[in-house]
Amino acid sequence: MPSLMGVFAHPDDESLLAGGVLAQHQAAGARTCVVTATWAPTSHRAPELAHALNVLGTEAPRLLGYADARTPASAPEGAVRLVDAPLDEAVGRLVTHIREVRPDIIVGHDALGQLTGHPDHRRAHQITLLAVEAAGLPHLYPHAGEPWQPAALYAATHPQSGVGRLGPLLQSVGKTLLAVPEAYVTTTVDVSPWAAAKMEAILAHRSEAARERPLPGLLARLPEAERDEIIRTESFTRLTPGPAPGDPHRLIA
C-alpha cells in the first residue's frame, strides 16, 4: 500500500471521511499521517484527535494552527480563522508537511465541503489543491524543504446514490445535504474490515459525540447495524497532479 496523508479542516473529519482507508493503509504497513488545519494543540479537541489517530494507527497529529470559522476560541488569541488566513501562508504551511512526510497519496475534502458545505472544508480543499502542486516545484516555498510531488490527490466525497440513511440523519437536525453526481466519483472503497476501528476513532472525538447535531453524536445514537451501513463505504474523486496519461501532444477530456 502507498503511504497516505490526510489533510482535513477539523478534528473528526479524518475519522468520518477517511478513517477506513487510513486504517487500511496502516494495516498493510504503509506510513499514514493526518494534517488538521484548525484547533490548537492546547484546545480540548487536540487530545481527542491524538486518541483517534492512535486508534487508526497513524502518526502523531500535525496541526496548522488556525481557528475554526465557527469557533474563534479554538486557537490561541491572535490566531486567525482558517477562512481568513492569507492563502499563500496557509499553502506554505501545508507544503512544509508534504515535503517532510513525502506521501504517495494525499486525501482531503471535496469542493462542496462535505455534505454540509462547511466553509472550513471548502477552504481546506482549496489550500490542498494548491499545496499538492506547489510541493513539487522547487521555486515555490524554497525554505519549506526539498520538493516532493505526491503521485495522487483524492477528494473524499459523497455520491447522490450513496447518501442513503445519512441524508435523513443530517436533515433531522436541520443540516443541508450537498452530494455530488455519480460521474464525479472515481473510487469507492469497502472499508468494512476496518469499520470497527473507524467507529472507535469517531467516538474518540468525545466532545463532538456528546453533542446532538454533529455527525459523531448522530452516529453514536444509532443502532450498531445502522451506523455500520453508513460508515462502511468511503468514496473519493481522483484529482491527480502532473501530466495526464495517454497522448502527451493533445488535450484529453
From TrEMBL:
InterPro entries: GlcNAc_PI_deacetylase-related, LmbE-like_dom_sf. It comes from the Bacteria. GO terms for biological process: glycoside metabolic process. Pfam families: PIG-L (PF02585). GO terms for molecular function: hydrolase activity, acting on carbon-nitrogen (but not peptide) bonds, in linear amides. Keywords: Zinc. This is Membrane protein. The lineage of its organism: Bacteria, Bacillati, Actinomycetota, Actinomycetes, Kitasatosporales.
